[in-house]
């Protein structure tokens, strides 16, 4: 690969050391902006998550800086991972920016749902999941912040009895005004709920509480009923079961 050829995969092998400080343990996942690895801090032995940005999708470090600053602004929101610092490494002949964050145990939501009976969640369980995500997202929306790319693959789930511990990953800048992004977060969240309980094939037989939330996936109705995640939380707190 020549230095001018775009990088679309890092493919870092376990055992490699990044920035002289972090030993790569395993690949976690990838997205449009780059790849994420589980690493161990050599000095302390602490596990960390390292997000490496593809250079062509991080021109002048715009994507990395946006992501890091947003995580820092939302540091006291429990649903957001804790950002630590940035490093610069050289891979495939190119400088690559790496963001080091806390490593959170859990499973991505598609994997969690896939292991449920019939590969879908029971309504009661899905409502608990929806409430956990929406209550965390509501704290972001109260600050005029948003996720920007909310889908099941960006939801990290850890089950505690009937409760869910949720972390959202891969916050994104859609380039729209905050109000529009906040409303779209809620639309995306409703779609996550809709898919988790079986999607189109199961929707006709769902109880009224489900349909009061999904609104037939009509964006305008969801915008009107739930302008922010807080409004969705309020609905879940007061709706009759």
TrEMBL record:
Keywords: Kinase, Transferase. Residues 22-241 form the Protein kinase domain. The keyword Kinase applies. The keyword Transferase applies. It comes from Limnoraphis robusta CCNP1315. Pfam families: Pkinase. It comes from the Bacteria. This is Protein kinase. One of its GO terms (molecular function) is kinase activity.
